[in-house]
Amino acid sequence: MALAAEGSTAAGSTHGRAVHARVGCAAVTLSNAMLAELLARAGAEADGHRRRAYERAAAAALGWEEEVAELLEQGRDPSELPYIGSGLATRLRAWFDDPPQAPDVPPSRRGFLTRAEVRRILENHPWVDLQAADLQMHTTYSDGKATVAEMAGAARRIGRAYIAVTDHSTGQPVPRGMDAEAAEKQNAEVLDVTAGFAEAGEKFRVIHGIEMNLSPSGEPAISADERSRFSWVIGSFHSSLRTEADQTSRYIDAFRRAGMHALGHPTCRRFGRRPGLVAEWDRVFEAAARADIAVEINAHPHRQDLPVSLARRAATAGCLFSIGTDAHDPAELEHFDFGLAIAVAADVPKERVVNFWSAEDFLAWAGAKTSR
Ligand SMILES: [Zn+2]
């Protein structure tokens, strides 16, 4: 059953309300993943503000901490969930009373974990106790809402080992990226913030990176000279993302000429908006592994890019992985667990997740690559 959460807990009933959906011959809990799909479907059939309310609730369902089934079992009201008003709460209850057939999930909403699933995957997992770095985030130097110091302070507070700030390069119309002059100013700020931690006796540090735009043909937006001023270069596609034609060559070309350490949000999918690019993924991953380019697991709940299925294939191909929240404000740094859960679910070996390397080892690897 594609929609059932892996490892779903068996649900009972409350006030005579069944919390089981009968799908095929097996009784399964109506998981939050399934509810997200039902909400998205209901949105597609509604108009105006009701449509938007359903769409917002569908996207929010990925982030709910608890399964709605459990919440109902405890006699609580679904309207305590974000983006669920009394009307939508009634609709949710109705689905539990009379479970609909499992809908066929369209590609743009397929293969997304919910936070409730993430919590189950990471429960008692040894990686949760390890310190890890967050290797993609944005600041006020491009489209982020917080400063370098604010992002660093927030990441430190939630236990990150170190972070890389990776504001957008120029070369894409939206958002406006960072030019060479701004990058130099940001570098000084990065050094300053890191010095501040050192003075306070903390090992925490900020690494100066960039999310460099790649053209649809794999052309990097900045020159080798400009790239060499950053310690960490993520290359990402941000245009021609809806084409259905095979895009293997844009990846291979980018690996060959773009001088980057990691491929950002590799498929470029977005929940409910676009299914992501099509490619011969095993060839792409083999090329990345050969070029020693890490593939990102973008931890934003609406991206989850790579998804578990592709992360597994990238692991088989021998790739390195970098997890990044792609946070645009301090609160989004909390999304890190989605990336961790994807790596765990895909059986990625721990030593291939560069986030677990010490800052020294990480910089030594990245620096050796830059000077090649
Ligand atoms: Zn991006």
Short descriptors:
single chain, alpha/beta, six-stranded parallel β-sheet, 10 strands, 12% strand, globular, binds zinc ion
- By DSSP, the count of extended strands is 10
Low-confidence stretches: 1-27
Bound molecules: zinc ion
Summed over residues and divided by their number, the pLDDT gives a mean of: 91
Looking at the structure, what is the overall shape? globular
Task: Trace the largest sheet across and list its strands.
Answer: 5-6-7-8-9-10
Task: Give the biggest sheet.
Answer: 6 strands, parallel
Strand residue percentage: 5-15%
- Counting DSSP H or I runs of 4 or more residues, the number of helices is 13
Task: Note the run of SSEs as H and E.
Answer: EEEEHHHHHHEHEHEHEHEHEHH
